[in-house]
TrEMBL record:
Belongs to the LysR transcriptional regulatory family. This is LysR family transcriptional regulator. InterPro entries: LysR-type_TF, LysR_HTH_N, LysR_subst-bd, WH-like_DNA-bd_sf, WH_DNA-bd_sf. It holds the Pfam family HTH_1. It comes from Diaphorobacter ruginosibacter. Residues 9-66 form the HTH lysR-type domain.
């Protein structure tokens, strides 16, 4: 590659290349970089002209790299990573002027807790930045944090991968959620009722041994499981359609849906220890000014939870 041709390569185009490769979508890549759809398409056309190759072609739902692009992916990722982690990092982070998409790995229940308050802070402090959420399996979180595809993981990860940094945010507790139309239940829930009724269990993996509320079995309680789902927000809907079911959920979920008069909640029939909500990040980005800012914002926003201003 001669010097003149090298001068025509805009480093921002490599960021575009990397984002499309990582996301498999021009639209998602544009959102990740904080660009409009037209700006992203224009950048992709410039890349195609520069390399004289389509680079990415539509195959099914994804944009897949051509053979030429596939041969470049590792090198481009290395360059982008170096720029982000060693050059941009040293320049600091100004949230008032920055344009960036921050990606959080969080469950749908976590979205209910974290997003309203964080979005309110972003509007005031970082108006040109935005939030995106993913819900990745636990076994993928370490790799996603290491690659920078997610910036923070928020929630309660009982078996967090070794090597991740973590910081406690606030504790929460479990309650038992039931339908307001279940007339068999009085003001309290007995152990006999708990163990005789059927239950909904939330587990990202689909295995009850890895459910969020397996602490119940650890306390000696037994459940008749009717359904296992990876979605917390599905639980109140199932209970509304099937009033004979119970579910053990974080108190925040029960209180939010309790306002609609569809469900109510009980304390567990045996004392259940609280669990911690934390934030997790990778060592590669421990000193990244943008991620440091994000971590401090999360910590500050939820330091007085549940009395969080939105």
């Amino acid at each position: 590659m001669n010097a003149m041709h090298m001068d025509q390569l805009d480093l921002n185009l490599l960021m575009v290349f990397d984002a499309i490769y990582q996301e498999g979508s021009v639209t998602k890549a544009a959102h990740k970089l904080g660009l409009t759809q037209s700006a992203m398409s224009h950048s992709l056309n410039r890349l195609r002209a520069y390399f004289d190759d389509p680079l990415f072609v539509k195959i099914g739902p994804r944009m897949e790299p051509t053979s030429k692009a596939a041969g470049m992916c590792e090198a481009v990722t290395d360059v982008v990573s170096t720029v982000r982690n060693r050059i941009v990092m040293s320049a600091g982070f100004n949230p008032a002027k920055a344009r960036r998409v921050f990606t959080l790995n969080v469950t749908d229940m976590g979205e209910l807790v974290f997003l309203p308050a964080l979005l309110a802070r972003f509007k005031k402090i970082a108006p040109e930045c935005s939030l995106r959420t993913l819900q990745a399996p636990i076994e993928q979180i370490d790799g996603l944090l290491a690659s920078g595809e997610i910036d923070l993981a928020l929630g309660s990860i009982r078996a967090a991968p070794e090597g991740l940094y973590q910081q406690r945010l606030f504790p929460s507790t479990f309650v038992i959620m039931a339908s307001t139309r279940n007339k068999e239940l009085g003001d309290t829930l007995s152990r006999e009722q708990f163990e005789s009724m059927q239950h909904i269990v939330v587990s990202l993996t689909g295995r009850t041994s890895e459910s969020y509320d397996k602490v119940l079995e650890e306390q000696g309680l037994h459940r008749r499981i009717a359904v296992v789902t990876p979605h917390f927000l599905m639980v109140p809907l199932l209970i509304d359609r099937h009033p004979d079911l119970l579910a053990t959920v974080p108190r925040e979920l029960a209180e939010v849906f309790g306002r609609f008069g569809v469900v109510r909640h009980f304390e567990p029939p045996l004392p259940v220890p609280p669990f911690q909500l934390s934030q997790y990040w990778h060592a590669r980005f421990h000193s990244d000014p943008a991620i440091v800012w994000l971590r401090e914002l999360v910590k500050d926003t939820f330091k007085s939870y549940p009395d969080v201003a939105v």
